[in-house]
Amino acid sequence: MTAGLCISLAGKTWPAVAGRPSQPVLGSLDIDIESGSFVALTGPSGCGKSTLLNIVAGLDTDFDGAVSFESKSPEITYVFQSPRLLPWRTVYQNIALALPEGDARLQRIPELLARVGLTEASDAYPERLSLGMQRRASLARGFVGDPDVLLMDEPFVSLDDPTARDLRRLLLDLWQRRPTTVLFVTHDRSEAITLATRILRIEGTPARIVSDTAVTLPREQRDDAQAVYEEQLRIFGAS
Amino acid sequence: MALQTDSHSGPTRTNVMQTVGRSRLTWSLGSLVVLVIVWEVAALWLDSRLFPGPLAVLSAMISEARSGALAHHVGATLARVVVSFVIAMLIGSMIGIALGRSATADRFFDSWLIFFLNLPALVIIILCYVWFGLTETAAILAVSINKIPNVAVTVREGARSLSRDLNEMAVMYRFGRWRTLRHVTLPQLAPFFAAAARSGLALVWKIVLVVELLGRSNGVGHQLHVAFQLFDVPMILAYAVAFIIVVQIIEIGLLQPLEARAVRWRR
């Protein structure tokens, strides 16, 4: 079962701290996300994309408005910008901890680790792995609980191209296998086009939606750099 | 000592660590032997009943060990050290975590902590004996109260620096209270517990001796008191050395391996 969600935000303001006046980050935003869609959220850095994701995740409750989900208690997972693995637990333990104790899905961890290419690193501690491997572990952790809603905050940033491409393919594969509603923050336009069914751009202080476009490029053409570039021109303009 | 190197791969991490460990052990043993020699020479030169050499101390130690007195008194002291150490670690950690998590509580109780940190150990001991009598409970209480503020201050530092990132992760993946404590919070505090335990052991056993000297009829502190009245210096040194050895065994045999285990995930 998947879940769509509905964000209706009146605004979000950082409170004044230590003499600095309060700062508005997000303006009025109304976003309906259809169940099973893959929405990319783009915008300049610092414009409040992560803040919006934290609000959807329920980590930030200090805002005006409401976030509602189609189903009653959706399984939401969050793949953070940094991997946020527990350094004192092995890769396997980190993933297992995302599931309740004795859960049947624990059996699937080895298979999932194989899919992200971490079979060998299963018993390694995260700090002994490369950033790319840590990200893959964090991705596996995000997937293992069969989320209804998957929130991702630039999960592939600062990875080398082949690794990032590999992980994008993995993400799409997992998304297609088991329809999940994905909200994916990125500032990389071609990444957004490669992955998403819909692209939301937010901009300004406080941030508002400046465009909301469906990606019409067929999936099989999204490996084609030229086609992705043309779609990018269509969606983002020549800027 | 030269590092063992392999012509193909460099020295491995373990054998470098073993080599470093072994060379450190050689150094400490060597320097201890030199200390004993200097001591013996000084004793021979001074030739005084009040400055016995290592051999005289050793023979005092052996005769105390034969009579069973050494084991009895060292055992009594060790039991007090262990009990008051455990109490101080538990209560001090709870206070430290509470203060580290709540800014309001910290602001309020900070001056209390400073008060207790600066209260001389002797005052606490005397007051405990005056208020609760010359009892075992009073002795243990006095030692624990002395140590609790130190533990609290150290652990508070750890609790203040808990990672918000990891905490959010724990919330998103529905860890719940118990899992968060076991897998997220306590591992972050482990280095602070280790630091508190290290300095704690050294402090606690010294205070236990004073407590015994003032109001107990057994234990190393009590024996030192008796020996002091008789001006029996070999006896004083025999008990002191015996206890230093016991504490070092605990440090090397228990605390260091525990600490190594707690940080084995580090790069």
Give an account of the 3D structure.
- The complex is a heterodimer of chains A (239) and B (267).
- Chain A has 239 residues and is an alpha/beta fold.
- Chain A contains seven helices and ten strands.
- A six-stranded mixed sheet of chain A has the order 6-7-8-4-9-10, sandwiched between helices.
- In chain A, helix 6 packs across helix 7.
- The radius of gyration of chain A is 18 Å and the shape is globular.
- The model of chain A has no long low-confidence stretch (mean pLDDT 88).
- In chain B, helix 9 runs antiparallel to helix 10.
- With 267 residues, chain B is mostly helical.
- Chain B contains ten helices and no strands.
- Chain B is globular.
- The N terminus of chain B is likely disordered.
- Helices cover 84% and strands 0% of the residues of chain B.
- At the A-B interface, strand 6 of A face helix 7 and helix 8 of B.
Helical proportion of chain A? 25-40%
Strand content of chain A: 15-25%
Runs of chain A with pLDDT <50, length 5+?
Answer: none
Number of strands of chain A: 10
Largest sheet of chain B: none
What is the number of E strands of chain B? 0
What shape does the CA trace of chain A take?
A: globular
Q: What overall form of chain B do the CA principal axes indicate?
A: globular
Any idea what the radius of gyration of chain B is?
A: 23 Å
| Tally of separate helices of chain A | 7
Question: What labels describe this entry?
Answer:
heterodimer; A: 239 residues; alpha/beta; 4-stranded antiparallel β-sheet; 24% strand; globular; B: 267 residues
